[in-house]
Amino acid sequence: MKITRQKHVWLIAFLLLLTGLAFAQNSLPFTKGVNLRDYFTTWDSSKLPDMYRYDEADFVCMKSMGIDVIRLVTSFGYQMEPEDTGKIREEVLKKLDEVCDLAEKHQIYLIIDNDSFGTRWDLDTTTPKVIEEHLTSLWSQLAPRYKDRSEYIIYEIQNEPGFRTGSDWNKIQQRMIDLIRTYDTKHAIIVSPQNFSAIDDLLKLKPYKDPNLIYTIHFYEPAVFCHQGDDIAGEGSRNLLDLAFPYDKNKLPKYQGKTVESWEELLKIEEKTGSWFYWGLQTYPKEGNVKFINDRIKKAVAWAKKNKVRLFCGEIGSGVTTRLSYRAAWNKAVSDTLKEYNIPYCTWGLDYGCGFLDFGDTGIEEAGCIFPDDINKELVESYGFSMPDADSVANTTLNSFPQKQYIVFDGIYGKNISFNQFGNIELINEDDLHGYCLKAKYTGQSGTVFFPPKKIISAFAANREALCISFSVKFTDKNQKLDLHLNDTDEGSELPPWQNTYTVKASDYKTDQWVTVVIPVSKFKESGAWSPKVNQWFDPQGKFDWSRFEGIVFEIKSENDITNGDVYIDDIVIKKK
After folding, report:
1. Model pLDDT for residues 391-415, shown as the tens digit of each residue
2. CA-to-CA distance for 42 and 50, rounded, in angstroms?
3. DSSP one-letter code for 428
4. CA distances (Å), 432 to each of 436, 477, 572, in order?
5. What is the pTM of this model?
6. How far is residue 239's CA from residue 469's CA, in Å, rounded to a whole number?
7. Which of 74, 147, 174, 499 is the most buried (most CB within 10 A)?
8. CB-count exposure of residue 503 (10 Å: 0-12, 13-18, 19+)
9. What residues does CATH 2.60.120.430 cover in the chain?
10. Pairing outcome for strands 32-40 and 345-347
11. What CATH number was assigned to the domain covering residues 30-222+311-393?
């Protein structure tokens, strides 16, 4: 049969359509989302993660912003006993179950991302054998636990497998796929190329045979733009600020706070540091633009289409030390390119890091900045999201206090709280009844200072007559006592940190058993002030100032200087009487 030119054109178009449809049929059911950092991560195996950082009200806010996928960054290795290869702590698993419940309830895809090892990728002890032993133990626990969950739950074997895995990584990853499939044949698994999920390593990867895999890349290019102002390359990156995107020869960056006189001067300065930033800055005039970003991502897209696999960009972002307008321009260029190629993505962070907060020119991550109240509209929209609706914001935990109680500590530290400890006090998991709690030994004064977020502090002061502090305590000696202080800020001799105090005596309670103590805030009385700033004690003067109130102190003491036994504290809550 003779094929006319017109028929030939239509045939090619039809075949191209089929090819496009074949790839489209492999497209993912989510489009864009965020990484939740410091929610299930800790780099100290003696501590639990900050698992009150986000809650259901925050999930509702995220959903209203157009977030349909969450990558839950989890440092499992530090939450296993023994570290890396043992059983995952039950407290972590229970909280992870709750997060899965929230994701399914609000129809947000949840990626359980194993972010173990962290900076330990640089250590000689992080060998392929060590990595595989960890992964085998981990996924032998997670896969059977979540195999019956909905398809909103997704597994990610290992975040950014480092260079120490070498050529072994692809084989290790295949064995982990096989291991997971012995328990769970339903859920999607995210797999990564070796060497920190880089595009160039993806192009070298031979696809696995499992049909329900998602291949991930992370995108921080050009690297000199995304990492300006941080410590990734020592002084070469730390001292560089205001590098523009897109590159503009008329917008010269700053080095050590001073605008350089020319690009050539900047290169000479960077060359002396010995930093790899020198090489990146040499090519930045050609790479600091939308075309470079498009060309780089297009390589990954072409690989995915060729191999008929699904592609996901698990991390994008430019750091907080970058000028906001430049950050927004880069964010938009990357997210627009990924959307053009139908590649879902997650920002590296939500309310800090590469997320939606603006910390001004300093780039300092201020403790007072929180999600969703302090997110920046320009940054939110540059990533392709919308601002959360007002009702969702109003119903968040911090905005609902004191109508809803605020948990200060219950084995996990409260939402957005910070704290300092002094003396001999530690988080322990020795008590059968309470699990994790605080334990103070009598080797002198010990205690914890809790600094709730500014919203809680303000509402506490405004509603103090209606509030109480409730907590559980176990004394082990009748001479023990516990002083609770409400502290002002320390501004030296003119404005010392005045304290309102209430004393709880062990002699008023049974020892060696848990009791609940409820103290109305109105019962606290001024007891003086100790100012570390001027190393001076001030007797009570009736000058406690609620406008300067900043924290709650639990201080362990003893009557008659007797220092026997321990004191256990748990379930600290601020609530209405």
Report:
1. 999 999 999 999 999 999 999 999 9
2. 8
3. E
4. 9, 20, 18
5. 0.92
6. 46
7. 74
8. middle
9. 401-576
10. parallel
11. 3.20.20.80
